[in-house]
Design a protein that fits this description.
- There is one protein chain.
- The protein has a single domain, classed as Alpha-Beta Barrel (TIM Barrel).
- 35% of the residues lie in helices and 13% in strands.
- The protein contains 9 helices and 8 strands.
- Strands 1-2-3-4-5-6-7-8 form an 8-stranded parallel sheet.
- Strand 7, helix 7 and strand 8 form a beta-alpha-beta unit.
- Helix 3 runs parallel beside helix 4.
- The chain is globular, with a radius of gyration of 17 Å.
- The two termini are 14 Å apart.
Length: 268
């Protein structure tokens, strides 16, 4: 199993990060993707895969971080992002995207401008894009009508769209990753969306430390909880998914190697 999205670099893991990693490997994970949320984390994140190839990283600017960044620095941040992606360590561009609640501090026009820059960097560096979209789906759909996704792919992280909206993203070529909400006892919307997502476009994540799955809801999430997300997806679809999710993830993150059958502790 591979956790396609977890923020293991954030301060909430400072006290026990190594223990969290140990629990993840013990739970059967073979790799995880840690996407950056802002410029301060980019260079430290690039050091992580050098220490442990099971932890791969993405570089980007999360839309919820944008209100806290000076608009005058946007071009400089994006230029730095371009430079760091050019080092060939990151396996994806992101987390980036659009966030409705953040509009008060970062107008949608600015969010779209930064998102468009991430799209262009994904094309330039031939990397997939990891996209956050929360309460901003109409803006993203309008954008995708006019802009093809990067050739390396676009992943709708912690997908929150409805079953009616999902076919539009499918038409544009998007992939989808589901997180803890699919396991909630009252889950309806994520399950309805899951049922119309092509299985070959499907992945799973924890989005740790947020969105802990049932029965851990309300506590700090961690990658070791990924099996609970996958179990919930399998129950909803009535079929096994682990092999398909692994194959989809390795195909999408093309620079990520399959886990060695002889060494459970690492990649390739």
């Amino acid at each position: 199993m591979i956790d396609t999205h977890c923020h293991l670099d954030v301060p909430r893991f400072d006290a026990d990060r190594e223990e969290v990693l140990s629990r993840a490997w013990a739970a059967g994970l073979t790799a995880m993707v840690v996407p950056a949320i802002g410029p301060d984390s980019w260079e430290p994140l690039l050091e992580w895969p050098k220490r442990d190839a099971r932890v791969q990283v993405g570089l980007g600017i999360h839309p919820q971080i944008v209100p806290h960044l000076d608009p005058a620095d946007d071009d400089a941040h994006l230029a730095k992002l371009d430079e760091l992606l050019g080092r060939g360590v990151a396996i994806a561009v992101g987390e980036c995207g659009l966030d409705g609640p953040s509009e008060a501090g970062a107008p949608m026009e600015r969010q779209l401008r930064i998102f468009d820059a991430h799209m262009k960097l994904a094309v330039k560096h031939d990397l997939p894009l990891l996209v956050h979209c929360y309460r901003a789906h109409p803006h993203l759909i309008r954008y995708l009508k006019e802009h093809p996704i990067p050739p390396a792919g676009l992943l709708m992280h912690s997908y929150s769209g409805s079953a009616d909206l999902t076919p539009k993203y499918v038409k544009y070529g998007c992939h989808f990753s589901l997180a803890g909400p699919v396991s909630f006892l009252e889950a309806r919307r994520p399950i309805e969306a899951l049922k119309v997502i092509p299985v070959d476009r499907l992945m799973a994540e924890t989005d740790a430390p947020d969105q802990a799955p049932h029965p851990h809801r309300g506590t700090r999430n961690e990658p070791a909880h990924l099996p609970l997300v996958i179990d919930a997806m399998e129950r909803a679809l009535g079929r096994p998914l682990k092999a398909a999710l692994l194959a989809n993830t390795l195909r999408f993150f093309k620079t990520m190697q399959a886990p060695s059958p002889h060494r459970g502790e690492g990649l390739g």
